Amino acid sequence: MSKKIKIEAEFEELAWEELTIEEQQLMMRARKVSESAYAPYSDFHVGAAVRLESGEILQSSNQENVSFPVGVCAERLVLGYAGANFPDLAVKEIAIVARRKGEEIWAGVSPCGLCRQTINEMEMRFNRPISILIQNPDGSVFRFQGIQTLLPFKFDDLNA
Q: If you write DSSP's letter for every residue of 43-77 in order, what string do you get?
């Protein structure tokens, strides 16, 4: 017997002025680093910035490759760098932005499945949710408290 299951998502949509100063700073760093994206194939420039629990901000942009699977998303790149270089510091928040080359307006963006699973792994590693900030084309910002909303069937356990 089949049954329907409903999944609901709760998150915030905030005007720029509603962000904290720290969140605005993180978003600005993601915007700035998106300019250094290496995206000759998609012309889609993505920037991601994370704030560690120490307050330090790390940032990265997407880096494409003619062999498409070899390219790396901005989110995975910055989270991998954080994990490798600051293995004892949790990521508190991540800001994600994207813009098409030559356009002034920010593009709608959401982390891909690989990036969502990478955020999940970082949350599991430190047993704490990461605040996720995503730039919208209209200037507003989505704020998610943890990856669960974006990845409701996350992969957590190899033995389950």
A: -EEEEEEEEETTS-EEEEE-B--SSGGG-B-HHHH
**What Rg, from alpha-carbon coordinates, does the chain have?**
16
Phi and psi for 121 in degrees, rounded to 5?
-60, -40
- Tokens 């990265």 belong to residue: 60
Return the pLDDT at 159.
79
pLDDT digits (tens, 9 = 90+) for 115-143: 999 999 999 999 999 999 999 999 999 99
Residue 51 binned pLDDT confidence (cut-offs 50, 70, 90):
very high
- Residue 22 catalytic? no
Q: Specify the pLDDT at position 111.
A: 97
Residue 29 in this model has a pLDDT that exceeds 80: yes
In degrees, rounded to 5, the angle at the alpha carbon of residue 92 between the alpha carbons of residues 152 and 23 is 100
Q: How many CB atoms lie within 10 A of CB 81?
A: 14
Q: 64, 75, 93, 123: which is the annotated catalytic residue?
A: 75
Q: What is the dihedral of CA 110, 115, 118, 124, to 10 degrees?
A: 10
How do 131-135 and 91-100 pair as beta strands?
parallel
Structure tokens at 23: 């969140």
